[in-house]
What does this fold into?
Amino acid sequence: MSENLMIMTERVDDIPLLLAQVENMGVKERLNEHFPTHGHWQGLSLGEVASVWLSFILSEADHRMNKGESWASTRLTTLHICLKHVVQREDVTDDRLASVLDSVSHDEHGSAFEGALNQRTIRVYDLTRQRVRIDATTAKG
It folds into this structure.
């Protein structure tokens, strides 16, 4: 009755938290809605690939495309459980990430995407104005 047991260990770190926040913001759905992919696209959707890449960028503080594949390949089970889809190493190659960048770089779709995302994530309150303060902080949304 000797069974060979294989134990795999993955570093989870902050990946579930980051992917849950991206999911809560609706980034994946908005990207898939506003940036359609061609018929030959396989594996994770554009929104899912972008979600994985965003979690890599925020977790590792590194935005380089060529590091995404090796990072994801050591966390495939964690990504699979968080995304509820099978994640393969090929889903986060630098070519796939470049395709995501190319897709989201189109201005005509980008404005609609930003508007839809902002409607979901930004809250505006109608406050009574007794005093106005000007803040020099710059932000883009």
Remarks:
- The two ends are 61 Å apart (CA to CA).
- The chain has one domain: 15-121.
